[in-house]
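Bump. Still looking for Adenine phosphoribosyltransferase C-alpha coordinates.
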Amino acid sequence: VIMAADKIARIRDSLGTFPDFPKPGIVFRDIFPLLRNPSVFNDLIDLLFDAIKESSPVTECIVGLESRGFLFGPVLAQKLGVPFVPIRKKGKLPGEIVAVTYQLEYGSDTFEAQKGSVQPGQKVVIVDDLLATGGTMKAACDLVEQLGAQVNLCLIIIELVDLEGRKKVPKPLKTLISFKD
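Sorry for the wait, here they are.
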Protein backbone atom coordinates (compact mmCIF):
# COMPACT_ATOMS: atom_id res chain seq x y z
CA VAL A 1 0.00 0.00 0.00
CA ILE A 2 1.37 3.40 -1.03
CA MET A 3 1.01 6.06 1.68
CA ALA A 4 -0.70 9.38 0.90
CA ALA A 5 2.56 11.36 1.24
CA ASP A 6 4.23 9.04 -1.28
CA LYS A 7 1.29 9.43 -3.68
CA ILE A 8 1.51 13.21 -3.41
CA ALA A 9 5.26 13.05 -4.09
CA ARG A 10 4.65 10.86 -7.18
CA ILE A 11 2.03 13.32 -8.44
CA ARG A 12 4.23 16.36 -7.81
CA ASP A 13 7.15 14.65 -9.59
CA SER A 14 4.92 13.89 -12.59
CA LEU A 15 3.75 17.47 -13.12
CA GLY A 16 5.25 19.34 -16.02
CA THR A 17 6.83 22.73 -15.24
CA PHE A 18 7.15 25.34 -17.97
CA PRO A 19 8.76 28.67 -17.02
CA ASP A 20 7.58 31.76 -18.90
CA PHE A 21 4.44 30.10 -20.27
CA PRO A 22 2.02 31.41 -21.44
CA LYS A 23 3.92 34.67 -20.88
CA PRO A 24 7.15 35.83 -19.20
CA GLY A 25 7.14 35.56 -15.42
CA ILE A 26 4.53 32.78 -15.26
CA VAL A 27 5.50 29.23 -14.25
CA PHE A 28 2.94 26.90 -15.84
CA ARG A 29 2.15 23.70 -13.91
CA ASP A 30 1.03 21.05 -16.40
CA ILE A 31 -1.23 18.24 -15.18
CA PHE A 32 -1.39 16.43 -18.53
CA PRO A 33 1.64 14.20 -17.82
CA LEU A 34 -0.43 12.65 -14.96
CA LEU A 35 -2.92 11.40 -17.53
CA ARG A 36 -0.17 9.59 -19.41
CA ASN A 37 0.78 7.55 -16.35
CA PRO A 38 -2.17 5.36 -15.27
CA SER A 39 -0.55 4.50 -11.93
CA VAL A 40 0.00 8.16 -10.96
CA PHE A 41 -3.45 9.14 -12.28
CA ASN A 42 -4.91 6.39 -10.09
CA ASP A 43 -2.99 7.82 -7.09
CA LEU A 44 -4.49 11.23 -7.86
CA ILE A 45 -8.05 9.89 -8.04
CA ASP A 46 -7.51 7.95 -4.79
CA LEU A 47 -6.32 11.09 -2.99
CA LEU A 48 -9.15 13.24 -4.35
CA PHE A 49 -11.68 10.54 -3.42
CA ASP A 50 -10.23 10.27 0.10
CA ALA A 51 -10.35 14.08 0.47
CA ILE A 52 -14.04 14.08 -0.44
CA LYS A 53 -14.86 11.22 1.95
CA GLU A 54 -12.99 13.00 4.75
CA SER A 55 -14.12 16.61 4.18
CA SER A 56 -17.58 16.10 2.65
CA PRO A 57 -18.88 12.69 3.77
CA VAL A 58 -22.32 13.42 2.31
CA THR A 59 -21.68 14.41 -1.30
CA GLU A 60 -24.61 14.30 -3.70
CA CYS A 61 -23.06 15.84 -6.82
CA ILE A 62 -19.63 16.61 -8.29
CA VAL A 63 -19.29 19.85 -10.26
CA GLY A 64 -16.29 20.24 -12.56
CA LEU A 65 -14.97 23.53 -13.94
CA GLU A 66 -14.13 23.98 -17.60
CA SER A 67 -11.99 22.44 -18.75
CA ARG A 68 -9.61 20.44 -16.58
CA GLY A 69 -12.26 19.82 -13.92
CA PHE A 70 -13.89 17.69 -16.64
CA LEU A 71 -10.93 15.27 -16.53
CA PHE A 72 -11.26 14.37 -12.83
CA GLY A 73 -14.84 15.21 -11.95
CA PRO A 74 -16.60 12.43 -13.88
CA VAL A 75 -14.20 9.77 -12.54
CA LEU A 76 -14.84 10.93 -8.97
CA ALA A 77 -18.61 11.13 -9.53
CA GLN A 78 -18.59 7.58 -10.92
CA LYS A 79 -16.58 6.33 -7.94
CA LEU A 80 -18.98 8.06 -5.51
CA GLY A 81 -22.10 6.98 -7.41
CA VAL A 82 -23.32 10.57 -7.82
CA PRO A 83 -24.06 12.85 -10.82
CA PHE A 84 -21.42 14.97 -12.53
CA VAL A 85 -22.33 18.48 -13.67
CA PRO A 86 -20.07 20.65 -15.85
CA ILE A 87 -19.74 24.40 -15.39
CA ARG A 88 -18.80 25.89 -18.72
CA LYS A 89 -17.73 29.18 -20.22
CA LYS A 90 -20.41 31.35 -21.80
CA GLY A 91 -22.24 30.03 -24.85
CA LYS A 92 -21.18 26.36 -24.62
CA LEU A 93 -24.33 24.81 -23.10
CA PRO A 94 -27.72 24.29 -24.76
CA GLY A 95 -31.10 24.91 -23.13
CA GLU A 96 -31.96 27.14 -20.21
CA ILE A 97 -28.89 28.25 -18.33
CA VAL A 98 -27.96 30.10 -15.15
CA ALA A 99 -24.95 32.41 -15.43
CA VAL A 100 -22.47 34.24 -13.21
CA THR A 101 -20.09 36.90 -14.53
CA TYR A 102 -16.83 37.41 -12.68
CA GLN A 103 -13.83 39.70 -12.92
CA LEU A 104 -10.46 38.66 -14.30
CA GLU A 105 -7.19 40.58 -14.11
CA TYR A 106 -8.14 42.26 -17.39
CA GLY A 107 -11.87 42.22 -18.11
CA SER A 108 -14.48 39.65 -17.14
CA ASP A 109 -15.71 36.14 -17.96
CA THR A 110 -18.93 34.20 -17.48
CA PHE A 111 -19.60 30.71 -16.14
CA GLU A 112 -22.82 28.88 -17.00
CA ALA A 113 -24.64 25.75 -15.88
CA GLN A 114 -27.81 24.20 -17.21
CA LYS A 115 -30.86 25.09 -15.16
CA GLY A 116 -31.93 22.07 -13.09
CA SER A 117 -28.57 20.30 -13.48
CA VAL A 118 -27.91 20.71 -9.76
CA GLN A 119 -30.86 20.16 -7.44
CA PRO A 120 -31.88 22.65 -4.73
CA GLY A 121 -30.37 21.64 -1.39
CA GLN A 122 -27.95 19.19 -3.01
CA LYS A 123 -24.55 18.89 -1.29
CA VAL A 124 -21.91 19.62 -3.92
CA VAL A 125 -18.14 19.27 -4.27
CA ILE A 126 -16.54 21.53 -6.90
CA VAL A 127 -13.41 20.10 -8.57
CA ASP A 128 -10.71 21.92 -10.54
CA ASP A 129 -7.03 21.47 -11.30
CA LEU A 130 -5.65 24.82 -10.20
CA LEU A 131 -6.31 27.61 -7.73
CA ALA A 132 -4.51 30.82 -8.69
CA THR A 133 -6.25 34.13 -7.91
CA GLY A 134 -9.47 32.40 -6.79
CA GLY A 135 -11.83 34.25 -9.11
CA THR A 136 -13.06 31.24 -11.06
CA MET A 137 -13.62 29.12 -7.94
CA LYS A 138 -15.50 31.94 -6.22
CA ALA A 139 -17.68 32.34 -9.34
CA ALA A 140 -18.35 28.58 -9.39
CA CYS A 141 -19.43 28.70 -5.72
CA ASP A 142 -21.74 31.62 -6.50
CA LEU A 143 -23.24 29.76 -9.48
CA VAL A 144 -23.85 26.54 -7.52
CA GLU A 145 -25.56 28.56 -4.78
CA GLN A 146 -27.60 30.45 -7.38
CA LEU A 147 -28.86 27.00 -8.49
CA GLY A 148 -29.97 26.43 -4.88
CA ALA A 149 -27.35 23.85 -3.92
CA GLN A 150 -24.87 23.85 -1.05
CA VAL A 151 -21.09 23.86 -1.68
CA ASN A 152 -19.57 21.45 0.85
CA LEU A 153 -16.04 21.52 -0.54
CA CYS A 154 -13.85 23.11 -3.22
CA LEU A 155 -11.26 20.51 -4.19
CA ILE A 156 -8.11 21.58 -6.02
CA ILE A 157 -5.10 19.62 -7.22
CA ILE A 158 -2.59 22.52 -7.34
CA GLU A 159 -2.66 25.76 -5.38
CA LEU A 160 -0.38 28.68 -6.24
CA VAL A 161 -0.13 29.96 -2.66
CA ASP A 162 1.54 33.32 -3.41
CA LEU A 163 -1.50 34.47 -5.43
CA GLU A 164 -3.68 34.17 -2.30
CA GLY A 165 -6.70 32.81 -4.19
CA ARG A 166 -7.79 30.97 -1.06
CA LYS A 167 -8.84 34.33 0.45
CA LYS A 168 -11.48 34.80 -2.26
CA VAL A 169 -13.08 31.36 -1.89
CA PRO A 170 -15.95 31.57 0.61
CA LYS A 171 -16.26 27.81 1.15
CA PRO A 172 -14.14 24.99 2.62
CA LEU A 173 -11.14 24.46 0.36
CA LYS A 174 -8.75 21.52 0.13
CA THR A 175 -5.68 21.31 -2.09
CA LEU A 176 -3.35 18.36 -2.66
CA ILE A 177 -0.21 20.22 -3.77
CA SER A 178 0.87 23.79 -2.99
CA PHE A 179 3.50 25.77 -4.83
CA LYS A 180 5.18 28.96 -3.64
CA ASP A 181 7.02 30.89 -6.32
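The mean pLDDT is 95.

Edit: fixed formatting.
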